[in-house]
Design brief:
Helix content: 10-25%
Number of strands: 28
Distance between the termini: 53 Å
Strand content: 25-35%
Largest sheet: 6 strands, mixed
Radius of gyration: 21 Å
Number of helices: 7
Shape: globular
């Protein structure tokens, strides 16, 4: 075996791989530049027509690099090494036409059309989580849509476990759930912004799913295919909202962690945001939670409480490197960190810490643990002049059986 090595960049770390054989190493082709334009879509048809001008200083990303558009609205991401999707960080006062993300595997320039939209100083938004949608439970997501119609928020955040399961099932079953989720949330009367959960990761529990790691939709691939970037940002009402993927993968196991590629992306994303702008993060596995003390330590089953990865032992159902995110946001207004996963409406506040770490309950139904019943529901937040209240819990109803 040759003593030479090559470098391969993974989402979590830099891996040294041996070169086998004595022949010359193959030099990989330089990744192509990703180019396109962000433009004012005056007729809202999603296509840049003659006379439609570009929009300057809008962030565009391939989930690795983040660039700002030039004065003519054009952008170039040199040697793009992203994950098959690109997105525009929708600025205040606009909304995206035909979605905020595009697949990049087709090649060619990408166009993001924006149209003017209200940027109110006062608005509400809904935080929902753990829809776990399937044909058997679709009524619960439909009930969420009805509540949204009643509350009339500016948008909805759904923090993961969007579908019943993709971890342990074959492709046909997993894709049917993603298609159902897209169809049902596509009927909502306001925009829906998603973050991925552990049950949205395709096939990694291979002893049950029988899915090969070489499958093109394996792991995060299926989420990308149906819902686009698994982390991204957008702006609304003077606040910078950041979706994070807090579900990392160690072979056939998931755990709470934000990988190094994503942390580097977040630093680049924040460079284009004024330091006086409040930042709200939303993700599935929470940064911090007390619910594990309610549930008690689980040693067995498919998701035990503790995990050891690369010699580091941590709690599996919270983000073991949450401090990296909190430190990165130090010096900025960071009023709210939203999570899900625990199926409990939880409010954590610490003396001397400005950030509130809040979780939403599960849409799929109530939860019973240690003799306590935690209802299903959503949280409605009201924003006034950049100040976010503590949220109002709204029971979902249709409680049915607990889980």
């Amino acid at each position: 075996m040759s003593s030479r090595v090559r470098f391969e960049l993974s989402r979590s770390c830099l891996v040294l791989l041996p070169l086998v054989g004595g022949g010359p190493a193959t030099v990989p082709a330089r990744p192509a530049d990703l180019t396109g334009v962000v433009f004012l879509d005056q007729n809202g048809n999603g296509v840049r027509d003659v006379g439609e001008t570009g929009i300057a200083n809008v962030a565009v990303s391939d989930q690795v690099q983040v660039v700002a558009t030039a004065t003519d609205g054009s952008f170039r991401i040199p040697a793009s090494t992203g994950f098959g999707v690109a997105y525009v960080t929708v600025p205040d006062g606009y909304r995206a036409v035909n979605g905020f993300w595009r697949a990049t595997d087709a090649g060619g320039p990408i166009g993001f059309g924006l149209v003017p939209a209200a940027a109110p100083a006062e608005f509400t938004f809904v935080h929902a989580s753990d829809t776990h949608i399937s044909e058997a439970s679709v009524a619960r997501t439909q009930r969420l849509g009805a509540l949204v119609d009643s509350v009339k928020p500016a948008f909805v955040l759904i923090t993961g476990d969007l579908i019943r399961d993709a971890l342990r099932v074959p492709e046909a079953e997993a894709t049917s759930y993603f298609e159902l989720f897209k169809r049902e949330t596509g009927r909502f009367s306001v925009p829906v912004w998603n973050a991925p959960g552990n049950h949205d990761v395709f096939g990694i529990e291979r002893q049950s799913s029988l899915v090969s790691p070489k499958h093109p939709l394996y792991a995060r691939g299926m989420y990308h295919h149906y819902l686009g970037p698994d982390y991204y940002s957008f702006n609304f009402g003077g606040i910078h909202f950041v979706a994070l993927n807090t579900v990392d993968i160690d072979d056939q196991r998931y755990y709470g962690h934000v990988d190094s590629v994503q942390i580097a992306w977040l630093a680049r994303d924040l460079e284009l945001v004024p330091k006086t702008t409040p930042v709200v993060t939303f993700n599935h596995i929470p940064f911090f939670t007390a619910v594990e003390t309610v549930n008690g330590i689980m040693d067995g089953g498919p998701a035990p409480s503790v995990i050891t990865v690369r010699g580091h032992t941590s709690f599996r159902h919270s983000v073991w490197n949450a401090g990296d995110i909190v430190t990165l946001l130090a010096g900025r207004p960071y009023p709210l960190a939203l999570g899900g996963h625990m199926h409990v409406r939880e409010k954590l506040r610490y003396e001397g810490v400005a950030t509130r770490f809040y979780q939403s309950a599960a849409v799929i139904g109530p939860t019973v643990s240690s003799g306590l019943t935690f209802p299903s529901g959503i949280v409605v937040y009201r924003v006034r002049a950049g100040q976010i209240d503590d949220g109002q819990f709204v029971p979902l109803g249709l409680e049915g059986g607990a889980h």
